[in-house]
Amino acid sequence: MTEAVLPGAGEQILLAGLGNPGPQYAGNRHNVGFMVLDELAGRVGGKFKAHKSGAEVLEGRLAGQRVVLVKPRSYMNLSGGPVVGAARFYKIPPAGVVVVHDELDVDFGALKMKLGGGDNGHNGLRSITKSLGTKDYYRVRFGVGRPPGRQDPADFVLKDFSTVERKELAFEIDRCADAVEALISTGLAAAQNTFHAG
Fold this sequence. Notes:
The chain is an alpha/beta fold. The protein has one domain (12-195): Rossmann fold (3-Layer(aba) Sandwich). The protein has 6 helices and 7 strands, in the order βαβββαββαβααα. Strands 2-3-4-1-5-7-6 form a 7-stranded mixed β-sheet. Helix 1 crosses helix 5 and helix 2 (80-89) packs across helix 3 (123-132). The protein starts with 11 loop residues before the first strand and ends with a helix.
């Protein structure tokens, strides 16, 4: 058994993508975490299945690591229950949890990765932090940029990507999936060095 490259993660890594369930939300900026997880599921080569944790899960291997892909079936602000339920079921500690989510304070097309930190007003992260009882889990932040003018950020994230953004979206989702793979195969510092500049 090989130890995961993320310190303290154990033998398996949980990759959670955040979003809201249902077709009416599928193209929203807030759902980019789900979009990245769907790309990763294609790379793992499997389909998500309903799990008693309240999430859809897929077990497999990615970048040489054993992974559990998780998409909560709850609304964004209740993400913590399903994510932590799956982590406990698979006996994965917080240090082995990676959350992929939208980030207003990062420009569209940019990625930022970090360990720990605040929730920056993101209700999904707030819920996970509360349920886990710690801020010390990994975040892969997919930039969606700030809303134009005086638009409320809460409304902005519940709108679909713009026509211009959609032209780049598939490429950016693919790149974010690459970043997740780099994080779990080479560690945080090396992944940051590769993906933060672009």
